[in-house]
Amino acid sequence: MMKNKMKFIFVTGGVVSSLGKGISAASIGRLLKRRGLNIFSMKLDPYLNIDPGTMSPYQHGEVFVTKDGAETDLDLGHYERIINTSLTKESSVTSGKVYTTVLDKERKGEFLGATIQIIPHITNEIKRRLYDGFNAKGDTDVCIVEIGGTVGDIESLPFFEAIRQLRRELGYENTFFMHNTLVPYLKTSGEIKTKPTQHSVKELTALGIQPDAILLRTEVDIDKSSKKKVALFCNVNDEAVISVKDVDIIYEVALNLQKQHLDDLIVDHLKLNCKSYADMSDWQALIKKIKNIKKEVTVALVGKYVKLHDAYLSVMESLKYAGYVYDTKVNIKWVDSEKLESEDPKEVFKDVKGIIVPGGFGTRGTEGKKMAIKYARENNIPFLGLCLGMQLSLIEIAQDVLGLKDANSTEFNPDTTNKIIDYLPDQYKGIKLGGTMRLGEYECKILPNTKAHDLYKQDLIKERHRHRYEFNNEFKSLFEKNGVIFSGVNPQTNLCELIELKNHPFFVACQYHPEFQSRPLLPHPLFVGFIGATINNK
Ligand code: GLN
Fold first, then answer.
1. Pocket test for ligand 1, best of 370, 410, 468 (most atoms within 8 A of CB)
2. Residues 6 or more apart whose Cβ sits within 8 Å of residue 284
3. pLDDT tens, 428-478?
């Protein structure tokens, strides 16, 4: 097969935010991947933070972590899960990163006396990052780039200008512009309205970008004549007006786009050498399976940000995927850890079959999380602890079982005499640190004859991390004497990665974030084990 040239698909949005353009973009990625192409994807975010790592989950939802340790927008999680790929730090570009690079260069005198301006300096830096993204993996055929926000926002203008210039540089047949809009349905008159779409495309063309396809997000079916009208007013071919009707299961979006031949349109436009058809039979089978699910199980998710479910997006998805293995729908009971502190856990957890304590930062709500852990431990309720969930499990056991009443993490009590979880600089010898946190993928050796080994069926695994504090190995033997098995350790540093309890049906907690590696058709073993245990918990 002839090697394809550098090709980009740019995904923009108009009319309203939260259109799900990330899902459409990822679905196109899935279709193209199934046609034998290597896909890379990128998200350009117009905000000025360097990355979402420091933003409140209430502002931004979950922070998704890539294999190489970039803290990114949660949309990258959708890309990884839907396309079934792993992305890199090049995938995430923010205005903050772009401006910092340009201003650092300016201070170093690299612009040789020039006046630094948005065009060309900022736009050049954006284009450089787009090319870097395309080249990041070395085998990319098509790079799908989503521009965050809505056309017309002041913040995103340099990004639109950069992609306009990119078409000039790469040519029409190497760039494809896909614009997503909302087509509202007016119940009273029973009609759909295309005017906002027309205005949004007008805005886009004013920036010099003529879309090649328009994706209309709608609640109802869009008739042929409305599609024709959009095509005429927005200056695109009839077949390039695609409806993206609301679906129950997000994987259906890819199938709907395929039905309307959006992948064919893109393949023709970009002149891609690839298979003539995307075989999506396993996805069709998965959707059919999901639609026929009759059983259900409810687990409690105990966290601080439960009001915004997006804060736990990858965990939610991972629970769902594990449920599919057992033809079971997993319902989540959201438990606010702070409120739990003044409630009776017996009452709160009476209708759940499992408890999960995900990651988190800061003291607020930790007492409630420990109450949940204690309840799961003492009542044989299947338990999965993730990151902070593992740290608090060890603290709870230290306080309750080992009798170390003031045991704590130095994150919550720097003066404690029993620093169970600590920032131990000498433990970091020899391992590379990203920022101040341990970020990205690290190895974990799994101890034989453990639950973890039964689930992973491997001796050495790799998982993604995002945390600052570690278990203090000085306490290890004391825990071991009291029924804690350290079933996974980092082979290079001996840091604790995974624990489980001896006399408990399923009490597993890990320092890493397994939720970032779970995929619809490849659910993560720890989640599969956990959901299996909840189903057995009669
Ligand atoms: N706050 C803890 C730490 O920094 C746990 C972090 C997390 O759960 N992601 O180590």
1. 468
2. 255
3. 555 544 456 889 999 999 999 999 999 999 999 999 999 989 999 999 999
Q: 530 Cβ partners below 8 Å, 6+ apart? A: 299, 322, 354, 356, 382, 383, 384, 506, 508
- For the stretch 489-498, pLDDT in tens is 999 989 999 9
d(CA 419, CA 496): 15
Instruction: Report whether 495 contacts 470 (CB < 8 A).
Output: yes
Nearest C-alpha to atom 8 of ligand 1 is from which residue?
359
Write phi, then psi, for 519 (nearest 5 degrees).
-130, 150
- What lies within 8 Å, CB to CB, of 285 at 6+ separation is none
- Residue 389 has which token pair? 């969930």
Q: Which of 412, 413, 466, 513 to mutate to test the pocket of ligand 1 (most atoms within 8 A of CB)?
A: 466
Token code pair at residue 75: 């949309």
Distances (CA, A) of 166 to 144, 169, 359: 13, 5, 40
Helix (H/G/I), strand (E/B), else coil: 309: helix
Strand 92-94 versus strand 39-45 pairing type: parallel
Annotation marks residue 515 as catalytic: yes
Q: Which residues line ligand 1 (CB under 6 A)?
A: 359-361, 387-388, 391, 411, 466-469
- Here the tokens at position 135 are 């080249």
Task: Compute, in angstroms, the gap from residue 524 CA to the centroid of ligand 1.
Answer: 21
pLDDT at 2: 45
Task: For residues 57 and 48, give the distance between their C-alpha atoms in angstroms, rounded to a whole number.
Answer: 16
User: For residue 323, what pLDDT is reported?
Assistant: 97
Helix (H, G, I), strand (E, B) or coil at 519: strand
Q: Output the pLDDT for position 538.
A: 79
Q: Given the CA of residue 470, which atom of ligand 1 is nearest to it?
A: 10
Note if 513 is an active site residue.
Answer: yes
**Hey, whose CA ends up nearest to atom 7 of ligand 1?**
359
- Can you give the pLDDT at residue 433? 45
At 534, give phi and psi (nearest 5°): -70, -35
Instruction: Identify the segments of the chain with pLDDT beneath 50.
Output: 1-3, 432-434
Say how many Å lie between the CA of residue 388 and the centre of ligand 1. 5
Encoding tokens for residue 370?
Answer: 């420990």
